[in-house]
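Team,

Forwarding the record for the chain on the shared tracking sheet. I've put the sequence and predicted structure together so nobody has to dig through attachments.
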Amino acid sequence: MSFVMSSLWKFLVEYQTHLIFAVSVGLSVSAAVHIALTKRDVRAAIAWVGVVIFSPFLGPVLYFVMGINRIRQTRIKSHRDRLLKEGADHGSVTVSDLTRYAAAQCLSLKRASDTVTRFPLCGGNEIIPLNGGDQAYPAMLAAIDSATDSVLLQTYIFDNDIVGHRFSDSLIAAFERGVRVRVLIDSIGVRYSHPTIVHRLREKGVTVALFETNAVTWRMPYANMRCHRKILVVDGASGFAGGMNIREEFLTEIGHDQTARDIHFRMRGPIVAQLLVVFCHDWLFSTGEQLKLGDWVAAESAFMPADMAARCVPSGPDREIESTHKLLLAACAVAQKHIRIQSPYFLPDQVLIGALTTAARRGVRVDIVIPGKNNLRLIQYAMMAQIDQVIETGCRVWKGSGNFDHSKLMTVDDSWSLIGSSNWDSRSLRLNFEIDIEVYDRRLAGWINDAIDNEIVHAQRVTFESLRKQGLLATLRNKLIWLASPYL
């Protein structure tokens, strides 16, 4: 035995270089084959192949951790389909005449959206904008404090700060008076503050789950494929959604003259049942617990509907991959007069850039508002590197004034709106789980138009001349960072 071990050791020592080379080639080739068979975006495929080939050991490891979509095929398809059917059936008000709500060209947009999401377009909704944390947080806390049956909260960031403590106190108080409470936080987003808010909630008995938490299994946490959704449903009748996280930077009493801005939305009507379906699916995926929709949604008599036509458009790296991306393309295609967009992270891919520039060439006015000050400097640099591709065909890009604005808004022809959690970048549109709501309603579109137009009044227009004034070094810096934009 000792002779065999000695011979084996000598062999390994003598041929270690060859063995290391063979292993590295095997790992790189295996990863490259997997990339070629599974990636749908040729640019992502080329980028990952480059990583695994030029970094023989590190590249395949990075691809294993960050590049493989482990979510697209789930084990909960049947329950998901049942939830979707229950959500579609509950309180749905058929939209028979879309022209009551929106411009005639939106009919073709609805048809396109019908193929993107399995949620039906429902009338009888009320959607109210809430301007910043000063309006949104008190409304959300008041809803939780008045809850008599249930509170379901899902968010990306839930900071352990003053605002986080207010929400946790309200959730704990609701639980202690007998309200059923479920809280779902993304396992990466919850770590934006340390220690996390989780212990504060759990020690008082509140049921808290983290999205994608296991450290060594196929469902381990990694930077990509985060749950970026923000949903609050109280007593199955009142819902809140949008792009605002739970953190103190959005509250004027704390941030003062540095307060970040955002627009959140309060909702009533059949749209709330759709929000519930999304939450129940994510809860099942994260915990294995099946929440029966009928036990959490309010009776129809509890709704206080207005008359807005709306539906949820969930997207993520599963069966709904690129749903929002497809809807944005359809919206740009049907626009006839005016497209307004406000996004904190505006890094569209070439397909979306083509849709926007084609609309501009058709004579559609395209206004895009981005922050003048961004909380992510690298994103700001990358944004400025590709803005020239948008403005060269007549799209108007505006850098907002004042503090960082986190709002995610879009309107088409003064009658269709898209609100929710998605940014105009590859992370939101291809990698993260997001929740957006398309709304066919002239009143809401008018409110959003006014908000965006008010930003434009005080904004600085981005032109080729202003881009040239950045200087060569700044332009080169932006372009180099832009090369990494799919990973930002």
